[in-house]
Amino acid sequence: MASYKIWLLVIILIFCFLIIAPPWNLFEKGVVIQGISKNTSEFESGLRSGMILQSINGKAIDSVESYNKLVNSLNLEDSTKVSMETKSGTFIFYTNKELSLIVKEIPKTKIKTGLDLSGGARALIKAENKTLSDSEMSDLIAITSERSNGFGIKDITIKSVRDLGGESYMLIEVAGATPGDLEDLVENQGKFEGKIGNITVFSGGQDISHVERSGQQAGIEGCSAIQDGEVCRFRFPISLKEEAAKRQAEVTLNLGIDPENPQYLSQKLDLYLDDNLMDSLFISKDLKGQVATQIVISGSGSGLSRQEAVKEATKQMNKLQTILITGSLPFKLEIVKLDTISPVLGKEFTKNLLILGVLVFVIISAIIFIKYRKIKITSAVILTMFSEVAITLGIAALINWNLDAPSIAGIIAGMGTGVDDQIVLIDESVSNVQISLKEKIKRAFFVIFGAFFTVIAAMLPLFWAGAGMLKGFALTTILTITVGILITRPAFAEILRRIQE
Q: CATH assignment of 4-21+344-500?
């Protein structure tokens, strides 16, 4: 009956290997679009970050090097037709400008690495002379994310962290960026404006009294088929303050009707964030010269399927709602700590960590063999250590956790705790106490569970210590020892029982 513990370990290991390194990824050709600038021919054709680019003008791409050669061979002096084939479809556009795509190799594994290993910049930011509430921090993160898109910064992670004193910070990590990129992102407070022509009719925050985020009046209002897929429209109401409504009435009074779309006025309402155009909205002809405090914002999102279209429309709606509420920050920001890591140093650091991991395996295996002089027990310990690392990496890949240096240190710490537990099991099993092997293993697990809860209690505060910088260490340590207590330790005990019998 107990053999199910070993089979459970084997099944989970196979599942984790499939998550970490899916076999189908090994045969995938092309490059991943890592970044693409807005307001370019590529973006307007439908290309997006995350798509896998397979060919340009019918010529196959199998690496970043082959992509660069193809791009350099394009004659972009005149308006050139460019056809890009991706897994999502073929996108055609005409351009005479240098392509704005940033591409990278298709990852062979699902494991994501942090800045310590991949290089980039990190900034710890707080509001100047102000303690932010949870809602203010959420708004700050939302608008900073929008501003990062406007600046064209790619591969950015923005999250809230808290130190042991309870003070909140915003942590920004950008792969492949420089400290100057982050300074540009937070130097200015941010400015959101709604313009008709060149006239500003309202500004985010100060002129908007309410934005409906949910309920019957806000959401997807319908979808329809188009040539290349589906398009879904969204709508939500906003409330303008009286002064902003009057300005809008004065501007729209002199507008005509759009001849191509008679239900709208001749000019659109343009939304700007930090002087960058974020979106353009049609103005209903019924609002001409009207002091209207209630306005319905509408827009659309498209996709190859209805599900993708709904997802894109919802994303666009949430983006607009966010910038209408938080477009202009009411407080200044200051950078508390700014770090930069070279990609070259990151690769060297990764190499050193791998060497360290191998040394840990070798040293622990040698010590176990010297102590017990049994190759079967030593092999069981090695297998258990390997299993715990593999399952922890599988969980990290499944939840898209970025593994940085503290995270890997946490895995090594968890391995050390696991070896301690296995030594307790081995010592109990070979002890001269006159009780059954089953009772000896029960006694060992009593000690192991006590140590488990002690480590958990010690790790939980590290989620907040150092403004969250040690969160990766705490998480991977907890994951590794939890995997051990639930999966690998019972399996090891069963293997040990079979060896002893």
A: 1.20.1640.10
With bands split at pLDDT 50, 70 and 90, how would you rate the model's confidence at 463?
low
Measure Cα distances from 70 to 44, 244, 358, 415 in Å. 21, 51, 41, 47
Handedness of CA 491, 493, 494, 496 (dihedral sign): positive
Spatial contact of 207 and 290, defined as CB atoms under 8 Å apart = no
User: What fold, for 120-190+331-340?
Assistant: Alpha-Beta Plaits (3.30.70)
- Reading the block at residue 169, the tokens are 């910070």
For residue 15, give both structure tokens.
Answer: 């599942």
Question: At how many degrees (to 10) do helices 489-500 and 437-459 cross?
Answer: 160
Cα Rg, the chain, nearest whole Å: 29
Lookup: tokens for 215: 């309920």
Task: Specify the 3-state DSSP secondary structure of 84.
Answer: strand
Could you give the angle at the alpha carbon of 53 between the alpha carbons of 52 and 59, nearest 5°? Answer: 150
Element (H, E) at 272: strand 269-273
CATH superfamily to which 26-105 belongs: PDZ domain (2.30.42.10)
pLDDT digit string, tens, across residues 112-154: 777 667 666 778 888 877 788 877 788 777 777 766 654 445 5
Q: Where are the domains of the chain?
A: 4-21+344-500, 26-105, 120-190+331-340, 194-312
Residue 297: phi, psi to the nearest 5? -90, 130
* Nearest in space to 20 (alpha carbons), one of 358, 396, 357: 396
Pairing assessment for the beta strands 80-86 and 52-56 based on DSSP bridges: antiparallel
Reported as type and span, the H/E element at residue 12 is helix 4-20
Nearest to 248 by CA among 284, 184, 197, 196: 196
Give the residue among 342, 484, 327, 493 at the shortest CA–CA distance from 416. Answer: 484
Q: How far apart are CA 266 and CA 283, in angstroms?
A: 8
Mark 97-133 as b/e (b = at least 16 C-beta within 10 Å): eebbbbbeebeeebbbbbbbbbbbbbbbbbbeeeebe
Can you spell out the DSSP letters for 410-448? HHHHHHHHHHHHHHHHHHHHH---SS-HHHHHHHHHHHH
- Which stretches of 274-407 are assigned E, i.e. beta strand? 276-281, 294-303, 333-341, 402-403
Most confident of 14-18, 30-34, 258-262, 274-278: 14-18
Instruction: Specify whether the CB–CB gap between 459 and 478 falls below 8 A.
Output: yes
